[in-house]
Amino acid sequence: MKVASKYIPLLIGVAVAAGVFIGSKLNFGDSTEKIFATNSKKDKLNRLIDYIDFEYVDQINTDSIVDVTVNGILKNLDPHSVYIPGSDYESIAEDMRGKFVGIGVSFYIYNDTVSVISTIDGGPAEKVGILPGDRILYANQKPLYGEFSVRDSITTSLRGKLNSKVELTVFRRSENRKIDFKLTRKEVALRSVDAGYKINDSLGYIKVNRFAETTYDEFEETLKKLVKSGIQSLVLDLRNNPGGYVFAAERMLDDFLEKGTLILKTKNKSGVIENTITRRNGLFEEGKIYVLVNENTASASEIVAGALQDNDKGVIIGRRTYGKGLVQREMSLGDGSAVRLTVARYYTPTGRSIQRPYINGDRSYFRDYQQRYENGELVSIDSISVNDSLRFVTPKGKVVYGGGGILPDVFIPKDLSEENEIINYLSQSGLMNYFVFEELDKNRTQFDAYDAELFYEEYKISETLFDEFIDYSRLGDSEFQFSGYENLLKKHLKATIAEQLFGGDYYQKIINQNDPMIEKVLEFENNEE
């Protein structure tokens, strides 16, 4: 396997809420002179499309022309005003709703067969007894294997209307037999809280991967359990969180700040400013909070970090955040498509805008990670340039800056070694998941003696398993030396096994071992004892 000399993680480009409406069709009875006389921009655009549709010499798909036109218009506005084609709308909407109607399984297409990785807690599949490792062969007698194993077709077969029925035939390898199941499709949660657990007796941890409709409900349930268990401090992990719904971020802030605290300002094109304040007494107003951020922390995540920082609540740890301070609103275009149009800018409580400049166009804007890499900002806080004209001061005298993301209170450099980047790539690309699935599929019973906590405390990746993965991934063919990174690679392998056996909490718990940002939190906690 040829391994590139550098792996630069893809900068999470986030397009959050917005909209624009492109006018209605014109009547061809109107004269050309009338169109230009009225100088109606919408009329001209629609008339041009009609001319192409009815008069152009070749057959043209005018739907595609409209898509290109809308994208071209939005591209000239700002980087975050976007068009959502009708074909993509439902999947995007499901992600933001935080739920879908289906049977509740996570699966791979493995050797042209739908293979269950895990079932979702409380979902239809778990309730009827479908197990990890089961192969789903038929849905309502329709084959889902071999030439029929097209992911879109499989998703359509497993999802459907609420309370609709589906009959599945699965092959259970451990019993060498086929089993029929009858299921009723239900709403299934797309989890946005990846993990929530206690790091120690007084310190809790919650990782949030986005801000969807259901995010706060998940967060509140997790926080209540941790508070009940006696935590006094909390790590809120917003690393790689691209944002989402602002209202979910606002509800989260309600739990950390006193009622009546200013958390957000927005200003529209007319200059109208709206202030958002906390509206209730929260679950964790008296507790200490540490917020973990990085270069992929964006939008609603930055609202949370900025509001806490500006109100002198907690400690922001990590690296400068993405820098998205534009508010979008979604608007339907009437044909199943929609646009998300920037309608306002948001400002933190001190009045700073964290939006990065985009005057040089989208290409420059979305190359920001590469620019941070090249100027050394990811490894040294001294390489971050700030604008003194965008200097603000919090109520307790802390100096903060606007103009491009949230600067952390405590800087933690990024490990940019090629070996570390490759290990992260292997973990995120799915290759490690496939390897672990195959290993579990050979013999799941080898883990029957472990519960989640025992696995976390005692299980070790053997040298044999480690060497098998090196061969499987063809890392042995690369030019890199992994001797100094063997423990890190083993940690990712163990975490991936834990995720497939026991779920996200234990994946994150293992990944967080020796994490530099978590270590910094523990240092703060130990110094205050």
UniProtKB/TrEMBL annotation:
PDZ domain sequence ranges: 89-144
A GO cellular component annotation in the UniProt record: outer membrane-bounded periplasmic space
KW Protease (keyword) present: yes
One GO biological process term: proteolysis
UniProt keyword terms in alphabetical order: Hydrolase, Protease, Serine protease
Molecular function as annotated in GO: endopeptidase activity; serine-type peptidase activity
PROSITE patterns: PDZ
Signal peptide range: none
Similarity comment: family membership: Belongs to the peptidase S41A family.
Protein name stated in the entry: Peptidase S41
Record lineage: Bacteria, Pseudomonadati, Bacteroidota, Flavobacteriia, Flavobacteriales
